[in-house]
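note to self — DONT lose this again. spent like an hour looking for the file last time. sequence + predicted structure for the chain T wanted, 431 res
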Amino acid sequence: MSQLEVSAMRPAPAPALVPLATLIGRELRGEKVEKPSIKYGQAALAKKGEDYFLIKPDCLRIPGNSSTSFSVFAIFDGHNGISAAIFAKENLLNHVMSAIPQGIDREEWLQALPRALVVGFVKTDIEFQQKGETSGTTATFVIIDGLTVTVASVGDSRCILDTQGGAVSLLTVDHRLEENVEERERVTASGGEVGRLNAYGGAGVGPLRCWPGGLCLSRSIGDMDVGEYIVPIPHVKQVKLPNSGGRLIIASDGIWDALSSEMAAKSCRGLPADLAAKLVVKEALRSRGLKDDTTCLVVDIIPSEHFVVPPTPTKKPNIITSLFGKKVLNSVNKSTNKLSSVGAVEELFEEGSAMLAERLGKDFPWKTNSELFRCAICQVDQPPSEGLSVNSGPFFSPTSKPWEGPFLCTNCRMKKDAMEGKRPSRPSVTT
């Protein structure tokens, strides 16, 4: 028996999950770390023509340096018009990137992304509302750097992750008033009213909506005709994929109203990304018909040694690492010291709070070299006398620390207070 045959009979040891810091350390030491290849496909059917998407697979952290590449994929599902979706598509990425400090390494860049995404979403919302238009949009925004995936979302366009072994994980949270009790409580506590459509004075019909405006969502970009308690602050989740890579399915609610996450993933396993996107849309159409705009992006993240999309699994895996909650993930980590790289997903960050002060944090860079204070949202320098800390309370409460950054300019502070129900975002007219 040849040595090759003997080697083939030996079970291959499960490769250890390489920590993010180790991979980045190799990069900084100049070791060769091959990034996975990105294959993607897109498909859509229009009912109202309000879905837009963004595909940018060739972004660079450092201009001119191809080793700092990352990819961006996003879906914007507009409502009450297309202006907000178009504006977000054209401006959100730039706003996110401008909120990341210059001259930092990859590890610091990845750690800064969650906060920069919050800043970018809020800044995009403020700028669009200044245009005086009333349309709004969901936003599901995905940044891929190597095997690290960061997803920020408002609304009900969803992103799921399918890994080898058949574990399907949800990387977003649906901000629908009908299904999200925490968001209903937040909206009503901030001054909004939640109820069903009541056109004839009888029992309410349809899904729960926020009044005024009648929006079914609790978070979005735009929607000037609805109260500011409909916030643009995104849920953000950052994960590191296993060494076997994975598949992302990013789609508007036209898909998710017809298919569950598991159904969508299962319907296209074993197919290349371009055909997979078409098949997901076709399956949604077959299941429900064309009742809404239906858009789907399929993104395969394929490490250099894996060039074939994994086939449909024939049996249930022994260990399924779930991303539906930190407790599940932590319990798996505690039960074994070494996880197989196949099917194991490492959660790096998750936060969904609608409180801006909690999302910006105290270590946000807030002072410039010229001793001016920089607004954490709009990035405009201002004298200390004009800046207000996000930690300043309305009164001298024990929790108020007005001397600590980050700081906001007057306009962004008014936006923050309006989102928290502390003041109206626009002057009210009384007769």
